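Lecture 7 notes: from sequence to structure.
We start with the chain below.
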Amino acid sequence: MSEVSHPAIRQNPPLLIVEDSNEDFEAIERFIGRSPIFVPIYRCVNGEQALAFLYHSGKYIQPETAPRPGMIVLDLNLPGTDGREVLHRIKQDDNLKTIPVVVFTTSNNPKDILDCYNYGVNSYIVKPINFSQLKQNIQMLVDYWFGVTTLPDSPKNSS
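Predicted structure tokens for the same chain:
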């Protein structure tokens, strides 16, 4: 048996979920956990925590506690620094802007949608109220971003 005939098991990069609602986070985590695609999940509950995670500050100073995510699922309506500001900061930073960001929010406000795409969001999903639709959306998100697409590696520091 040759190694070439067997596809390599792909190690998926971590998913950072920035979500203040425990109920929404637990539903997302449960659906992703049932997926045949294994994705390590990290969670931040507000914008300040997400930025600390991404910039390795505060309790996230050690890279092991805050690995570079392969993708970020971001709620817009967060306490304190909201998701709009987090998105803007990510997409303005040369070291972070290649991380795909999917906004997953209750807001279907056309201004929010336009602003997010102007900031560089990769996808904007309005959270469905229907439980089965939520499950389907999460599965499609995981299948697409972790099963179909090729995510960028973290940039190498060039001095």
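Points to note: The beta strands are 15-18, 41-44, 71-74, 101-105, 123-126. The chain has one domain: 11-147.
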